[in-house]
Amino acid sequence: MSEIKGIPLKQYHREYHKKYRLTPKGLKSERIAKWKVRGLIGDYEEIYDVYINTNFCEECHIPLIEGLYGFNRKVLDHNHETGEFRNVLCCGCNTRRG
Question: Which pTM value belongs to this model?
Fold first, then answer.
């Protein structure tokens, strides 16, 4: 069995990727990967820049928060049929829009 720095290879890779996902580059990579799985198409770099730099819902204008919970959580709105990005909304407006 292969080892790196005395740690089994599988464990080393698991720990490396866990740390990587906490870096800005890792967070970006993981977020874009999730968008692709959910069917979003387009220029991911441009969409990511818009997403990161949007601090208010583009529909109701409330301040947005990062995270998994909250009615004012920042979400990426897109057309589910075409996969095209529309805008960055709060979770509430995105749910109302459908």
Answer: 0.78
